[in-house]
Each structure stands twice: as C-alpha cells, then as structure tokens.
Amino acid sequence: MTDSKLPEEPSEPQFRSRRERREYERARHQARHMTGELTVTQEDSEHYLPEAETSPAEPETSEAEVEFRPQPIAADGPGGLQDAPSRPVNYSPDQSAEEPEGFFNDSIRYDNAATALPQLPEDTRAYPEQSGNVDSDIEEQPGEKTSDDNPLGYMLVGDGMQLPEIDEEELKTRKTRKRRRTIIMLTSFAVFLGLLAIVGIGVGQLVGWNNKDFPGPGGQEIAFEVNPGEGPIVIGNRLVEENIVASTRAFRDAVEATDTTAQIQPGEYTLRYEMPARDAAEVLLGVGIPGMNYVHVNSGHRIDDVFAHIAERTDYSIEEIEEAADPTNFDLPTEASTLEGYIAVGEYHFPLDASIQEILEIMIEPTMEEFERLDVNEGAQQHRLVTVASIVEAEARPEDYATVAGIIENRLDESNPETAGFLQIDATVIYGMGVRQLQFTAEDRRDASNEYNTYVHRGLPPGPIGAPSIEALDAAAAPKDSDYYYWITTNIETGETKFSSTYAQHQEYQEEYRAYCDDNAEICGRG
C-alpha cells in the first residue's frame, strides 16, 4: 500500500440523471473498499466508467478478462479498515493538473496492486449487500450534497453495511417541512370550505332555497306595488326585502300550491308585515276575493289606445266602450269633445261585474282630483290645462316639462316677435293627421283642414293630444319663465333637447336634428 499523500478528492461531479448517479456511487464504493487482486478490463470500464484516456506512464492491462467482484473487508488488524486506501490502489500522484469533471479522473487506474490487503479466512469476510438499488433509500433534496468521505451516507462496520444514518437536525427539518405542508394544506382546505359555504348560503338566499315562513297573522299593513313583467321569484325577493314574507322559496311554493290559474297582475296591493307566504300569495292572486280585471294607461297614450286595452282586458267591445265614452255622461268641461286627456295615467283593478260606465268613471276620477288639488275649478281652465299638459308630455322629457310649458306660454302671446301666437308644434300636427310618426311633409304643414295644425291655426289646438301624467299637469300649472321661444330634440334616443331664443339659432339646431335623422332613418320614421 502506497504511503504517498493523496490529493484532495475533486468536487462531486454533475449528473444528467439518477441512473448515472447510481452507477457512479456503485463503482466508487467498490473501488474504495475492495481488497485482493483487481483488474478493470475494457468491458468493466465500459460498464462502470466513462471512456478514459490511457496514461502513457502506465502499463497496459491484460486483455484477459478478470472477474470483477468485491473482496472481504476486515474490521481491524493489518489491512483492516484503518489501513484501507481512500483512493484506488494505483492512483498516480504525479498528475498535478486540476481533475476534469466526470465519473473518475483520467489519472486513476486499477490493476493487480502489490499493496493489496491479505486475504482473510472465508468465514470472517463481510460483504456489503449489493442486491437491489444501492441508493434506493436516499431522498434527494435540492442543493443537498453527501459527505465527500462517504458519498452514500453508509457506515461500514465489522459485519458489513447498515442503513444510512440521518442527522437529527435534518430529521427535525424534514418533520418541520412536512408539518408545515400539512398545516398549509389543511388551512387552505378549511378556507375553501368556508368560502363554499358562504357562497352556498348567498345563492340559497338568492334563489330561495331557504323556505322558512312567518307563522302569521302579520303585523301592520303596507302598500306593495307589483310592476309589469315581474314574476313570482322577483316579487318574492321584493317581499323578503320589505319583510312581508320570510323567504322567496316559501312564497313561490305558496303561489304554485294555490288552486287558481290566475296570474299576479301589476298594481298596488295591501299586505302586512311578517305575514305567512300563503296569505300574501292569495292576496296577490285574488284568491278568496271577487275576480278582478286589470287595466293600465301609460303617459302619452291616445284615447283609442286606452279603449283597445279596456276591450282586451274586459268583456266589452270597442263599440260599447265608445258609446259609453260620451263626455256628457261625465262631469267634464263643456269644451271636452272626447275623453282624450281626461283618463288619468295609472293602473286599475275592476270587479268582473263592473259596468263600462263605472270603469270609465274610475279612470277619470284621478284627473278631477288633480284639478282640485291645483285649485283649477273652472271648466275652461281645466280644459286648457289638460291640453297644454298633453303637449308637454308629447314634446319633452320630465326634466324639461316646466321649461317647455313656459315656452308654450311665450308662443301663445300674440305680441311675441318670433311666432306671433302660433305654437308651431309638430306633435299637434301629427295627432291631427291620425298617424304615429315623427315627421311630415311641407304639404302637411300647410294643411289648414287639420284643426290640430298649429302652424296654420293660431293658439292651442281644440283639445288634448294624449294622456298627460301628473307631473305634466303640475308643469302646465306652474310653467317656468324664460326668454326661449324654440326647442328641438336633436337626439331621439337620448332625448337631448336644445332651447333657443331666436329662429336663426333654432335653425342651426334643426340642422343637427336633420343630420341625426339622416343617420337614423328608422328611428325618425323615414324607413
């Protein structure tokens, strides 16, 4: 055995795969701890080592194949572990250059060394177990390296090889990592379950999974309005918001369980706080009370629209309705030639057996009450008010009602320098033509046979041109003072309206309107 001081072992090479590492460790382990005669043949070199250049200073090895097997290791004594070389037995110390990376340095050679350890009796030999994967129990950690003196982490003892020892600190670190991963996983799972529960509860409330109900009979009365187009779920959600019923699900179930084919109609109903869902459903469906007819009137509706809707919702024909609609049958101003403008905007419920006369009286009553509230008691004033209000309703947006009402009053002044008492309003001309469109021809503008043509007839038209809202009536009763004489809606979709004091300025706005209609022919009624 050579006594030469061996150079420090090179740093651990880089491996392309675990398999390369296993082959490297197996060969290195056998080389460092073998005894006896050993020659690495070409076949063995190809199996355990990468191809290496042969040093010129070394003798050629025999081509004869020598059996490659591990030799016994003694626990102590001559040739024991303490005397075993830490390098292959024929390592050349003359190679002072830096060792290149690889499985083994090219200067390493294995042959029949004269320094081989003496053979021990067969029964004293201890062989490291070579079956299976040598490093199958090694857990690789990123950036972690094994000891240079013992790369596999095994301890050689007298009887052979034991399982790898794991440092106590490393064991604690691994347990800490595992515990941390477990805590993070459990925490994340708990948070997920919590969020799922919250979302489930919210969705349940939204779609009415909760079917709790109030025991009844209910508390203080409350007015509840059903809007057109609302179904049981939307109505149920609103009832829950008003604290009228306890849950949407209970209300929906009550509607489905009600023995009726009726539908909930738009309108105002009297309900109670915290009432049973079944009671609320029966009130809204009219169960247990006389059957009702439902009729609604929208702002701007003409009288023929109203009559058609009444005929649709009742058993009366349009002819029967028109016959009953004689103004002299009602307490209306003598100036009223029809019920146009006097039937109030709103929603109505009538008993199934109500006469057409009773129905019309009920629909006129709100307008008469509004006259009284505004302190407009004389018939001619009432007729003038409802006529102006109907024009305001047709021509302006609610936010412009008072301004347009003031302009109408300015135009009606025959001494004004702009219109000399002519209203010159398109909506009145179109109403007199009996059509529903936004534009008309120059010939229509000159048509004096149209009593509602305010371009050729000075002052107000003979009567209202539609049903005015309460807001329009209020604006007509209190017009806003201004020096404006003109207005024009330059964008029908948005309702944008521009006002002017002179006709020249008004003409500029008219050009804007014409350009808009050129781009939106269908909206302007040209299509």
Automatic annotation (TrEMBL):
<dbReference type="GO" id="GO:0005886">
    <property type="term" value="C:plasma membrane"/>
</dbReference>
<keyword id="KW-0812">Transmembrane</keyword>
<comment type="similarity">
    <text>Belongs to the transglycosylase MltG family.</text>
</comment>
<keyword id="KW-0472">Membrane</keyword>
<feature type="site" description="Important for catalytic activity">
    <location>
        <position position="395"/>
    </location>
</feature>
<dbReference type="GO" id="GO:0009252">
    <property type="term" value="P:peptidoglycan biosynthetic process"/>
</dbReference>
<keyword id="KW-0456">Lyase</keyword>
<keyword id="KW-1133">Transmembrane helix</keyword>
<feature type="region of interest" description="Disordered">
    <location>
        <begin position="1"/>
        <end position="102"/>
    </location>
</feature>
<comment type="function">
    <text>Functions as a peptidoglycan terminase that cleaves nascent peptidoglycan strands endolytically to terminate their elongation.</text>
</comment>
<feature type="compositionally biased region" description="Basic and acidic residues">
    <location>
        <begin position="15"/>
        <end position="28"/>
    </location>
</feature>
<feature type="region of interest" description="Disordered">
    <location>
        <begin position="118"/>
        <end position="152"/>
    </location>
</feature>
<dbReference type="InterPro" id="IPR003770">
    <property type="entry name" value="MLTG-like"/>
</dbReference>
<dbReference type="GO" id="GO:0008932">
    <property type="term" value="F:lytic endotransglycosylase activity"/>
</dbReference>
<keyword id="KW-1003">Cell membrane</keyword>
<dbReference type="Pfam" id="PF02618">
    <property type="entry name" value="YceG"/>
</dbReference>
<dbReference type="GO" id="GO:0071555">
    <property type="term" value="P:cell wall organization"/>
</dbReference>
<feature type="transmembrane region" description="Helical">
    <location>
        <begin position="183"/>
        <end position="207"/>
    </location>
</feature>
<protein>
    <recommendedName>
        <fullName>Endolytic murein transglycosylase</fullName>
        <ecNumber>4.2.2.29</ecNumber>
    </recommendedName>
</protein>
<keyword id="KW-0961">Cell wall biogenesis/degradation</keyword>
